Amino acid sequence: MEYRIDVNEDNTARVVFNGDITFSENVAFRQLLKDLSVKDLQSCVFDLSNVDMVDSAGLGMFLIAKEQADTGGWKLSVTGAQGHVASMLKLTKLSDLLQG
Asked: What is each CA distance from 86 to 36, 48, 82, 100, in whole angstroms?
């Protein structure tokens, strides 16, 4: 998993992911959350357009990100999920929790 954070002037961020989001990406995902926590965000969108696979640990990481957003007072949503990733988000109801 690789990611790029783009922050606009209005303190909205977009995180563009590339690659799978799995247990082995736990350290990188926590670094992403650390990077986001130092920004004064209003909202953040996780762009999953280039993600082919998310496992249960990856879904758990999304929940941790949602908790961080709620605690930090900013909104988190996901966009671009396709195929397996979209199915996993719907199956677990995370798509409802992380609506754009």
From this structure: 24, 9, 5, 14
